[in-house]
Design goal:
Strands 3-2-1-6-5-4 form a six-stranded antiparallel beta sheet, with helices on both faces. Strands 8-10-11-13-12 form a five-stranded mixed beta sheet. It has a five-stranded parallel beta sheet with strand order 15-14-16-19-20, with helices on both faces. It folds into four domains: 132 residues, Beta-Lactamase (2-Layer Sandwich), CATH 3.30.450.40; 66 residues; 151 residues, Histidine kinase-like ATPase, C-terminal domain (Heat Shock Protein 90); 114 residues, Response regulator (Rossmann fold, 3-Layer(aba) Sandwich), CATH 3.40.50.2300. It is α/β, with parallel strands linked by helices and 530 residues long.
Length: 530
């Protein structure tokens, strides 16, 4: 353990408090259980897990605390005994606060906060975040055994806090890793796409480039899977709810997986018998689920096997979808954990087929976000697998609107684009691709060079990376908007909801996550600038 950091205003201590996402969060049973145990074992009225912020104390757990403090779950530091524990870094044991030289004038004393025993919540790196404390409304002579019990409960509370810190650190690592992995994929992805579209390309070379493009896309999907899992684990998966026909989603999923099935001479059989196929849901997310299940069925089956998609009416207005294969199957030992993240079943299967073990965990999160359920059944090794998704159907679906007509805009020779990217290969790949479509493109590799270009030319559209050597794309678009109206497309390796919100608030109309699919970039340009 390092040197104690116990100053109330210590920025490192305060940063950890906020980064650990403990302040202003709902009660959690893990902490409440420890506080309840303290009241029962020590025979006291109140037990708190108190986190001391710059100007207040927040109660992560507040067992036995009277109203209105129980609902508020915080007090100003003027009412805090725990602040003294944080400042000293030592336990504070008080039999009667009314007689204590420091505490007797505390405004909490008239509220029947009399006896107090608080143990500092000290992290593994020596940061004092608050206090685990036991409180009684009458004088209490604390015994050595009681203090030891309180120390043990404090250690368990710290373990819970450290677990949350570790999860936050993991999330930050995944976000940073995804950014660093995405950036070098962009130039290769764009260059391959442009070359594939060249009608004069020799066919053998086209096949090789399609292989490269396909595998870059696969790598991007694996990165997306890590981020999806993070969103799901924090309850931040965003759904775009609309009235959809699941049969259409299933047909689209089958079409997306057709080439993989054809490579193994496997038919995908559609038996869509449900009479209630409409539901309220996110078609893209559900297609992600069904594609994943289909791809698994294809991957884990031998050549010339088959995969079947069946739909039927379930009980109580539910829609039931079954995707079955005749592949390697799932053993009884593996079945209980197939939806666990990073679990890949038996080693021999993992070694043969590969994968991250995230697909089914993500499917489960998406289906449950739709108030549905997903399950698996198998007769065992070599007996195939049936994956069953049950979703609530829309009994009285709203009338679908007219299908929007897609108008293909032709590139505008007059559209002036300022393209800003500090990754040199990405910058040149994107500029070449845009110029092939006859856009007028000016390139820059920093905020300062972009602003110098904007001082000389008027641009219709800014396409900018967010992270730049001398600032951010957010600062850049704010500066440009202060000069004159301009549309913006943000391009970044960060794709969490908070990242998208920040770019939209800064003034960008679109947020594209690397590696950039050129079709999506071209579509975004058409939608906002033409």
């Amino acid at each position: 353990m390092g040197t104690l950091s116990n100053h109330l205003d210590d920025p490192v201590r305060l940063n950890i408090l906020h980064e650990a996402a403990l302040l202003d969060t709902p009660p959690e049973e893990a902490f409440d259980r420890l506080a309840r145990l303290a009241t029962k074992v020590l025979g006291v009225r109140i037990a708190l897990v108190s986190l001391v912020d710059r100007d207040r104390q927040f109660f992560k757990s507040a067992v036995g605390l009277a109203e209105p403090l129980a609902s508020a779950r915080q007090t100003p530091l003027t009412h805090s005994f725990c602040r003294h524990v944080v400042q000293s870094g030592e336990p504070m044991i008080v039999s009667d606060a009314r007689l204590h030289p420091i505490l007797k004038d505390n405004p909490a004393v008239p509220l029947s906060i009399v006896a107090y025993a608080g143990i500092p919540l000290v992290t593994s790196d020596g940061l004092v975040l608050g206090s685990f404390c036991a409180i009684d409304t009458d004088p209490h002579e604390w015994t050595r055994e009681e203090i030891e019990v309180l120390r043990d409960l404090t250690a368990l509370a710290i373990t819970e806090i450290e677990l949350r810190r570790a999860n936050k650190a993991k999330d930050r690592f995944i976000v940073m890793l995804s950014h660093d992995l995405r950036t070098p994929l962009t130039p290769a992805f764009l260059t391959a796409a442009v070359l594939i579209a060249d009608p004069n390309l020799p066919e053998p070379l086209r096949s090789d480039l399609e292989l490269i493009h396909r595998n870059i896309e696969l790598e991007a999907r694996m990165i997306d899977s890590m981020l999806d899992l993070t969103r799901i684990s924090h309850g931040k998966l965003r759904l775009h709810i609309e009235d959809i026909d699941v049969h259409e989603v299933l047909r689209a999923s089958a079409a997306m997986c057709a080439s993989e099935a054809a490579a193994k001479a496997m038919p995908i059989r559609l038996e869509l018998r449900a009479t209630r196929s409409l539901l309220h849901g996110d078609s893209a997310k559900l297609q992600q689920v069904f594609c994943n299940l289909l791809k698994n069925g294809i991957k884990f089956s031998g050549p010339r096997s088959e995969v079947t998609i069946q739909s039927s009416d379930g009980l109580e207005g539910e829609l039931r979808v079954e995707i079955s294969d005749k592949g390697v199957g799932i053993t009884a030992e593996v079945m209980p954990r197939i939806f666990d993240p990073f679990d890949q079943g038996e080693f021999t299967v993992t070694h043969r087929f590969g994968g991250l073990g995230l697909g089914l965990a993500i499917c489960k999160g998406i289906v449950e976000a739709h108030s549905g359920s997903i399950s698996a059944s198998s007769g065992g090794r070599g007996r195939g697998t049936i994956m069953t998704v049950v979703l609530p159907s829309a009994m009285d679906p709203s009338c679908p609107g007219e299908t929007p007509v897609h108008i293909e805009h032709q590139p505008s020779h007059n559209l002036k684009i300022l393209l800003v990217e500090d990754h040199e290969d990405s910058l040149h790949a994107m500029s070449r691709s845009l110029r092939k479509l006859k856009y007028q493109v000016t390139i820059a590799n920093s905020v300062s060079t972009a602003l110098r270009a904007a001082a000389v030319h008027d641009f219709d559209l800014l396409i900018s990376d967010v992270g730049l050597p001398d600032g951010t794309g957010l600062q850049l678009i704010s500066e440009l908007l202060a000069r004159h109206p301009i549309k913006g497309i943000a391009i970044t390796g960060y794709g969490m909801e908070s990242d998208i919100t920040r770019t939209k608030e800064a003034g960008f109309q679109r947020h594209l996550t690397k590696p950039v699919n050129f079709r999506n970039l071209h579509k975004a340009i058409q939608e906002i600038a033409l």
